[in-house]
Protein 1
Amino acid sequence: MDKTYDVIGIGNAIVDVLVQADDDLIEHFGLTKGTMALVDEAQAEGLYAEVGPGLETSGGSAANTLAGVAQLGGRAGFIGRVRDDQLGRIFTHDIRSVGARFDTPAATEGPSTARCMILVTPDAQRTMCTYLGASVGLDPADLDLEMVAQAKVLYLEGYLWDNDEAKAAFIAAAEVARDNGGEVALSLSDAFCVERHRESFQELVDGHVDILFANEMEITTLYEANSFEEAADHVRGRCRLAALTRSELGSVVLNGAATHNVAPFQLGPLLDTTGAGDLYAAGFLHAYTQGQAIDACGKLGSLCAGQVVTQLGPRPRGSLKQLVAQHLG
Amino acid sequence: MDKTYDVIGIGNAIVDVLVQADDDLIEHFGLTKGTMALVDEAQAEGLYAEVGPGLETSGGSAANTLAGVAQLGGRAGFIGRVRDDQLGRIFTHDIRSVGARFDTPAATEGPSTARCMILVTPDAQRTMCTYLGASVGLDPADLDLEMVAQAKVLYLEGYLWDNDEAKAAFIAAAEVARDNGGEVALSLSDAFCVERHRESFQELVDGHVDILFANEMEITTLYEANSFEEAADHVRGRCRLAALTRSELGSVVLNGAATHNVAPFQLGPLLDTTGAGDLYAAGFLHAYTQGQAIDACGKLGSLCAGQVVTQLGPRPRGSLKQLVAQHLG
């Protein structure tokens, strides 16, 4: 079936505030390194007051992925909610400027655009505190189901499960995608997020998901497994493809009985892991929707993830197409 | 005389939007590489719509310098005007979070916080388009003259001369500083800015300035000189110290009949020259207000400028104190 879009994503529309931090600060705030904590506006302001200068950049897990797909030349669209404030305009500009479609109307009242404070420690790990703000205002009426029906792949971020209203909408969208011959991809997003919604995610993987993205911590949390191998055994066969990322060990893609091991790309010193999983999904899905073999999908995912960890922030600067030509051309 | 502050700066309170650009884009917009152009809000929006994703970070020439002085451990304060909007809150957070005092009340109506779109080309040069917004709302009543009287050095940015109301206020502030035994420093900011205000700057240098900061293009423009040497001959003796920066050639400090040649620091690949002059002034003034010799002032200026050009944006990330301990300790 001919489709207008390669990938359509639904997610929280977030502006990231990157700040440098040491381990003491992570401990002082009672955070767990490498994970995401939800905070309310007062907590967000309180944390912000205690950290150093920030660097603001568009973020949001699915939004990062869709921006990456667009940068690679894919036909991408994003659905998510900002407020009509300065950060909302920054988010809107950035995702449109790489060629992704983004038409969800901005909220004209209520909470401000979502912000995620990302504490980057010297080991390049990122620890996140998210104020969801306007992004939780996304409801079924905002979902452009015509756009969803026109997508080869509908991509959902697990973080959306923290929003009850949105959750029902995503499942409806997933059904629309599948009814129109599209596939559904899900990223598990974060181990704590999986912990909060384990049962719901397990059902989702069994019933609605064709392609699952998860890192080692997330997939072991989902199945309460004692090892990566045990978790991989659990998920195998429950969805068509499971792409499991393992940081410096690369990734493993499960495809029915077959297992594809994908090597990581090291393109420079590791600076900030923000966006690594999101860009892996971008590369994977771009190759996938271009009809490439699973090995090639994993390789492009690895390459994009390998680029984004050498810079600050989750949106690749510089040309991903050039990178592809250089390394996979 | 005992002073409460080492350096107090007055300048435009600006948030920078860093975007990557190629030379064609600079030409397409009719801009001159390495310089700053003033734009109105509609032009700013028009340009923004045509460029790629941005990275937002606090900027403003004098503000960058004062943030640098604070990061080095100096007692620093900044006077400038933001609007009470999201970018204004980012600016306020960032400068306070490094320990600089910033109390100018935010405007509650009128234009939004000033923004500067900085196009960074692959040669690491930056080309700027500034929408002055709320920052031109700075008027004499905003100048905390008690704070100015308590400064060893009052630092003014030349960009302020684009704002008629503010201009009179700065001259008044300069007189207060001197009447209280302080010194006045001026940065010429930009060659086009010098072109716009040549006569006024020449008078200012002759009558009010103790320490002048300028790069090669600015000082030759100020005296319509044919060479750096000719410009240096012109300025020598007109103010107590003239610190003239020459990019990869380092800097030259004129101190009466004496000439101090200062070598540059190369701390890594050149990534973005945004903030190089501002951080040179920060290092210089910090050493100066600690009573160090002129050679040491130039050296600290060079070191800070050398750091900031290895990163994106005009505010050093990471510890300047650590850098000093490592290279000058």
Protein 2
Amino acid sequence: MTSFAPLQNDTFLRALMRQPTAHTPVWLMRQAGRYLSEYRATRAKAGSFMDLATNPDYATEVTLQPLERFPLDAAILFSDILTVPDAMGLGLHFVEGEGPRFARPLRDEKDVLSLRVPELDSLDYVFKAVTQIRTELKGRVPLIGFSGSPWTLACYMVEGQGSREFHTIKKMLYARPDLMHRILDINATAVAQYLNAQIEAGAQAVMIFDSWGGALADGAFQQFSLAYMQQVVARLQRNHDGAAVPVVVFTKGGGQWIEQIAGIGADAVGLDWTVNLARARELVGAKVGLQGNLDPAILFAGEAQIRAEVRKVLNDFGAPSDGSGHVFNLGHGISQFTSPDSVAAMVDEVHNYSRQQRSPIVNNFERN
Amino acid sequence: MTSFAPLQNDTFLRALMRQPTAHTPVWLMRQAGRYLSEYRATRAKAGSFMDLATNPDYATEVTLQPLERFPLDAAILFSDILTVPDAMGLGLHFVEGEGPRFARPLRDEKDVLSLRVPELDSLDYVFKAVTQIRTELKGRVPLIGFSGSPWTLACYMVEGQGSREFHTIKKMLYARPDLMHRILDINATAVAQYLNAQIEAGAQAVMIFDSWGGALADGAFQQFSLAYMQQVVARLQRNHDGAAVPVVVFTKGGGQWIEQIAGIGADAVGLDWTVNLARARELVGAKVGLQGNLDPAILFAGEAQIRAEVRKVLNDFGAPSDGSGHVFNLGHGISQFTSPDSVAAMVDEVHNYSRQQRSPIVNNFERN
């Protein structure tokens, strides 16, 4: 077993578990990505996106890049949410400018019946990257592992690619729920094993991305996405190497189901920008931490506006005297068209303003 | 002033206004459309989509087509939500398979400052179609007029086309809210005038489609979409020719804001399939009627499954002894890949089951 350097900044982990922190921690979904010129340089060196993602050296390099630029409070493994179905033999590849595709999507009963939980060996490149990143982080900040949710993986596995309407998988869901449940059952087992292996390899928190849960009808969401995330969460090891390993679940477009999502046993719930944080906090109470939820498009505005919107999110969540448990993030992945200067301003404002919230300067002159 | 035949089926209008009805009325968003072979035939005859939409004879023909097939409780004007910005001179056209485009989108201050509320004359083809459809309906069912919401029109006007992330308009919204408000102010005036002219021409109810309100952050939605829909609703004539003209507002992805949407003065609120109808009804109480919300993808399943899901929606809303005010619809426009037989089964089940809900057969043997 690898021995890692002690953690110097545990703000992120503490906030997920609703413990007091000196400032609100911040990281960004897709923080290692195309908006950074150094990422684009590594990507050019590596070749395709999959060449980059499957090479632990490159994955480590790009994971650490945003931490050199910004005082972020967490690192997140550079990988793709679709590594698991790729390991199932579906043939993941990326069409430039169009996103992920599977060469062999699941289209009929025969396809579904031959689907198996993959051998973890085939995902070894991921676990190697986790260990290497954790080592090279030298304890600066915690490392987040992640996976797509069983439903979100299934969306790509059945549609064969991203979709706007999800006609193919919804047709299966409504016409052949037995096949749908079979896929989701296999995915839930695979995702739980995959995340546990990431934890064994060094991930200090894990996040489940339910990117397409919000496409489901009320009722179907609970049955075909939430129930399987609950299965995954129940099977995760929540303590490793003497430390708690918090779990975050994030259903994009799931704002209406916050209370139900908060009830599946995760430590924290990710929120997109459509959710009012004050209301969310009121609904979930002390049950879970909350992560989010600045609209990534705000980073296209000027610095003063960005700082004002950051303060609005922090004020919506409320001063920490009301409790703790907020991790600042965007409500979705950062756009490739974002200026890194805007990210710097955002991170700076989160840290500064959240410290002010914790130690308000009482100015009696101004109060009068 | 044209004199129209008396209305024979007012179920739809009554339900919008929360009056008792003998069955739950039903219509479908995009009910005149590509899933019908007779629509495709008219379209082929007409030429482009705009050739079809701007010709009152063709618009009348396709509006009436679904009523010949199914016993629907309302007709909706065949038109496009983007006629208003087209009349503003932005140059609407349709790229086959890709949806609407504007030749001259609003990209800078100069573009925005030269924007004007269009002369209603330029939309005369719409009002002519309304009058002709209402005449040819001969009072069978009411005719719905409609428009895009000020925000949804602005999305297309600024982006120049549909979008997944709305970066261009969101950049304007956050960086130049003054320009954004100017566009929305003009749109609100134009939409109100446009809908009032449809009412004058014969529309018996009107609906505002806020297709992209759900892309906005909480806070921004209220400021940049809801406030302008409220302005439109406030300016509409709610009575015409001796009859009440109910107003429906529909924000796709607006499930979290139902209570606020219900508070802007409309008679009814449209809901997409992510919303739980029982919960929605609990939240809005007696304030408004509700319209929706079957997932259009359910129409890809078999007949038994379709009928079961229709009953689920009707049961979620609740038996009419609990009150009234439900118009059955899909949660979004019907897919072009839907079988008309599935629509027939859906409409049949709505009518039959909702009648059963109103006159339950009390079977004492089964109860014991």
